[in-house]
Write a structure and sequence with these properties.
Structural class: mainly beta
Strand content: 35-45%
Number of strands: 11
Distance between the termini: 5 Å
Helix content: under 10%
Shape: globular
Number of helices: 2
Radius of gyration: 16 Å
Largest sheet: 8 strands, mixed
Length: 164
């Protein structure tokens, strides 16, 4: 069995001590778009149907091109609802995702990842706060269903697996 190890991470920026239940299962994924490549920790979310790339990571991956994404164009965008019922515009963007197993062998997926519209649209006005810019990107069921998922709070283990 191939294992793709993750970890329990605290995705909150605060440095104060937090209880263990605030840590979330995550996995590092290498994302490639055109000639750019970045690795991000994705929150593993079995409640999300889709994999989402939030603005902070999107800007890091797409660079200056991220400013040209047109989230308001009806033909290109989709709408997704969060657990709070708030709708967000997303754009599907073709990327390659690589999960690396215990011997660093990649498992590639060519997918359209859903890039979430930034809110606020930029970070120029500090009075508006960070909004969704610091949200962790989410690994949803569209990719999770390719794997078996193991999460153990008692042993602090998180991994995805595939049969050999």
């Amino acid at each position: 069995m191939r294992k793709f190890y993750g970890a329990f991470l605290n995705f909150e920026v605060r440095s104060e001590s937090i209880p263990p239940e605030r840590y979330a299962p995550s996995i590092e994924v290498n994302v490639r778009w055109e000639d750019r490549e970045k690795s991000f920790d994705f929150l593993i979310d079995t409640g999300s149907e889709v994999t989402l790339l939030f603005p902070g990571q999107a800007q890091a991956l797409f660079g200056a091109a991220f400013r040209d994404f047109e989230f308001d164009r009806p033909g290109d965008r989709e709408l997704v609802a969060g657990i709070d019922g708030v709708m967000s515009a997303v754009l599907p963007v073709p990327v390659s995702l690589n999960f690396h197993d215990e011997v660093d062998s990649p498992e590639p997926f060519d997918v359209d990842i859903l890039v979430v519209q930034p809110n606020p649209s930029n970070l120029d006005d500090s009075d508006l706060g960070l909004g969704n810019w610091d949200n962790p990107s989410i690994l949803g069921r569209d990719l999770l269903l390719h794997f078996d998922l193991f999460v153990s709070g008692s042993t602090s283990e998180v991994y995805l697996s595939l049969p050999e």
